[in-house]
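hi! just following up on the protien thing from before. the input was this:
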Amino acid sequence: MTTRQFALVLGLGFIVAGLAGFFPTPADPPAGLTQTHGFGHALGILPVNTIHNVVHILFGVMGILASRGSLMSARSYAQFVAIVYALLVVLGLLPQTNTTFGLIPLYGADVWLHAIIAAAAAYFGFARKD
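and the predicted 3d structure came back as:
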């Protein structure tokens, strides 16, 4: 898979995840989450809310656009995703920030999924030379 293909696949995946998040399994929001609109668990295990879904869709659109540009745009997108998602992993592991300052739920299986995304994006953004 090339870096441009990765950007496209990840972008499409983010859009699917963002749309799926609008149909969560209902759940009680965690303490500290102030933005509870649309809160629930996507696939029964991944905490989401409306802001979370919109962010996924934005990352998806960015990925699709990056995949249609140059190799540098796809690589920059992968680097951006790697850095942002690595930071989200750290935030999700800390009890004080696992609601991303009250805006986005970020805990449990979501943290580990973000770690996998960050690692894959780091490979395509920093290590792969195609």
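The CA atoms of residues 9 and 51 lie 22 Å apart.
The longest helix spans residues 71-93.
cheers
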